[in-house]
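Quick sanity check, Homoserine O-acetyltransferase:
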Amino acid sequence: MPIRIPDALPATAALENENIFVMTEHRAMHQDIRPLRLLLLNLMPTKITTETQILRKLSNTPLQVEVELLQTASHDSKNTAAEHLETFYTTFDAVRDEHFDGLIITGAPVERLEFEAVDYWPELCEIMEWSKTHVHSTLHICWGAQAGIYYHYGVPKHELPEKMFGVFPHEVVKRTSPLVRGFDDRFFAPHSRFTEVRAADIEAHPALELIAVSDEAGVYVAKSTDSQNFFVFGHPEYDRETLKAEYDRDIAKGMSIAVPVHYFPDDDPTREPVSTWFSCAQLLYTNWLNYYVYQTTPYDITRAGQLS
């Protein structure tokens, strides 16, 4: 089934070139079904890249998906054209009275800051508080996952001695979870972060459960027991070249940065990186949409977020 996005969004052409079923707004208006309403809070500096990556993963769903893009009003984006933001993004004030089947909160390159030191932290807290009563299920990614699990459950983050950077093997620790249905016993996922949330802190909280971990990278996926909040501490949406682009950027700045592990053949950055995470990354997004949004969200969208 298709994903519904604005006709002129830059991601539209990229996804259509990949033979992904993208439905234009004009065509969608002539269908008599209720689409899933998703809100994407994009905190990444390269917003167009992140839009395309996540929309690609949302494309394989059992129902038409309508995605609205959200930015923080309390932070000025310096890496995305103002025209793009004005054309395609909305702010929280414009949607605070609306309800959504799903919310995705992306990562952000601010993990070395204390949460309260991030300039848009008060606004993000307001959005996360609002999600309790206006969103059926929320998916938090990387720093967004650290921020969400800290805000909702008080689980802290811890600074790492060096950047967790590369593609790491993981294992599922709760095989019965529909979120990881179809996953291999050993699967791979990218990480790019300077901080971590520890498994012991999650296991100690009665409202949380671990889903997948890595011996090298630590916690990958956790969720709330009521399935209202999901936390993914890596970047399953990343393209083949994303880690390479980050590495090349940092090298060009003269930074001391290690080669991302398990990514380039023989850890040689002159060689083309190999993707080993695409299939499970797609399953993660598809399973979340299918089992925790589509199959359980109320048909009356105004009831989304209202816990029984």
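Posting the structure with no commentary besides this: The chain has a mean pLDDT of 90.
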